[in-house]
Design a protein that fits this description.
Elements lengths: L13 H13 L7 H13 L3 H13 L7 H13 L3 H13 L7 H15 L7
Helix pairs in contact: 1-2, 2-3, 3-4, 4-5, 5-6
Length: 127
């Protein structure tokens, strides 16, 4: 990523990389730029940031800052869920419910959404 007036974020600080990515993603505090947001989220995800992994799923699902690839989106949602991001279980469940980028599997969809609800509520045995 090129420097552009905002403080450049190093890859070893996933929280700052994610925060900068959100600025680029939303256009709040920086000009909206999905390519730069994607780069920031990749750095944060590489450092273990579950929310960044989730956003990469969203971006692949929608084709924002990268080519649309719902199969890759499902993989990022699964990684984020494994890292503890409950919202990814819901998104992945919806993909299975609708057969969107993954084979349709309503039982798996229901299971994923239930796990996501349990995880979001703080249930320790959600996985």
């Amino acid at each position: 990523m090129a420097k552009d007036g905002l403080t450049y974020v190093l890859a070893d600080n996933s929280g700052k990389a994610f925060a900068l990515g959100m600025k680029y993603y939303t256009g709040s505090g920086a000009e909206q730029d999905y390519d730069k947001a994607f780069d920031c989220f990749m750095k944060a995800a590489a450092a273990g940031n579950a929310e960044a992994m989730h956003k990469l799923g969203v971006m692949h699902f929608n084709g924002e800052g990268t080519a649309q690839d719902k199969t890759v989106a499902a993989k990022w949602y699964a990684k984020a869920a494994d890292a503890g991001w409950a919202g990814s279980l819901y998104n992945l469940g919806m993909m299975y419910l609708n057969g969107d980028g993954v084979p349709q599997d309503k039982a798996k969809a229901e299971d994923l959404m239930k796990k996501g609800a349990l995880m979001a509520s703080g249930e320790k045995n959600a996985k």
